[in-house]
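hey m, so remember when u said the tokens were messed up on ur end? i reran from scratch. heres the input so u can diff it against urs
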Amino acid sequence: MSKFILIIWQYLEEIVPALIFGFFLSGLIYEFVPRNWVEKNLGRQDIRAVFYATIVGTILPICCWGALPIAIGFYKKGSKLGPVLAFLVATPATSVSAVVVTYRLLGLKFTIFIFFAVIFMGVLIGIIGNRLSFSPKEISQRVCPHCEETIPHTHKKNFFQHIESVLKFAFLDMPREIGLETILGIVLAAVVASFIPIGLWIKNNLGGFWGYIFALVFGLLMYICSTATVPLVDAFIKQGLNLGAGMSLLLIGPITSYGTILVLRKEFGLKILLIYLGFISLASLVLGYIFSLI
């Protein structure tokens, strides 16, 4: 129990700042990014919208927990499913800090391959998402606190009214929308980290095919941000994990979390969730194997 409490505290120290930053960015997006811009650039079912979402995702320095509220914010502003899924893949999978750490610990080949692999995965899942039959949830209308009209609408606000709207959306509406699923995800991740030992088994069993299976299962079960994954993969490789499996873990670990799984299930349904997880799993294994051949 003491280990569980320690681990959940460590998760909270790592995740809460990202969530706060993500919630705040979602509030800024909802308040200041014009709906017509989102509909024009992310609301189309074409490759350009997916590419925009992927590139934006690779630039933002946030993990999957911080990306969740932003992605849902895009969705509520009119983004299509494809760009949302592309954003959820690209954003947590890479960051400036992760690129630097990857280069320092794993070398240039790892760094270049994972950067382009993330872009490839984001664009491909976006294309798949745009081709899926999907009935969007009816988004409930919010009433503007300064008038009787529903949001969104054109309404002049002063600076303080803008800030009030940003904070209300970020720290009241967004936690109400995905807060419970996020908390449950953190608890589940801490449970897995506390009660599933890895031990010396890695050294003796993960040099070949089973390394990929381990990377898949471990990456799905554990929450690992893109930067923190790098030293972990480096340690696994030094203990005997094969290079391809290490690449697979670098890809799948940061992209999936219990929070992402639970929020996707709530917002988009079980079918979309299963397709998303299936794609991430297959693409990570295939790309990892390709990397092992280079």
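this time it looks ok to me. The radius of gyration is 19 Å. if urs says something different then somethings off w ur setup not the seq
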